[in-house]
Amino acid sequence: MRHAASLDDIATAPLLWADFAPAAAVETESGTNPNAGHRERLRERARKGGLNALPDYELLELFLFRSLPQGDVKPRAKALLTRFGSLAAVLAASVEDLCTVKGIGAAVALDLAALHEVALRAQREPIVKRTVISSWTALLAYVKLALAHEPREQFRVLFLDKKNQLIADEIQNHGTVDHAPVYPREVMRRALELSASNVILVHNHPSGDPTPSHADIDMTRQIVEAGRTLRIGVHDHLVVGREGVASFRSLGLM
DSSP assignment of 181-205, as one string? Predict the structure, then answer.
């Protein structure tokens, strides 16, 4: 099976986007841009030593070169990492939150958000093309990439057909830093609309700790019960945090 692209793999994409860069920007970089020497040296190190050898801030710099064809982007790359804590968190941040960092405007923020979406779609490919149950490792990687750094709770449902292939991955509700309201009847109503035979529940804990709470357990039991009367199975409930992904089924909670 072809492996899904990692964040490092996806981050190489800007090096291939020269055709999309404005001609004037390219000319400026090779002409009057005082930072052109640094940019070319960093690119050369990336070509010779490999992207994996670069620290996070330099990998982020390489991407920002395309978004910001002039100026020193190193301070902005470091400011992003300081503000959000990690490269993964930078990419997962919302456009609005990215714009709070000095020197990051709406256009750059949108580029970073687009990079995250590219990574998500690449990670989702093996889930879509195979039965979810047989692609469990890929599924865990996908939900962690999607939710581990979300600043607010988000409740999602993966709707599966009778062969356990993914029909849809939908956000059912956004919440606060510690709560996302969930209505079992709404989950099941949507499952019926999509002709889903099974579902996998997914939500995140912004605290970082994926340990299920008592409220999580009670809510899951209500959804399982609602599904039982409609013959819609609940395969699992995954709780995502920066520290990992907790599976209700693996923990014996369902």
Answer: ---HHHHHHHHHHTT-SEEEEEEE-
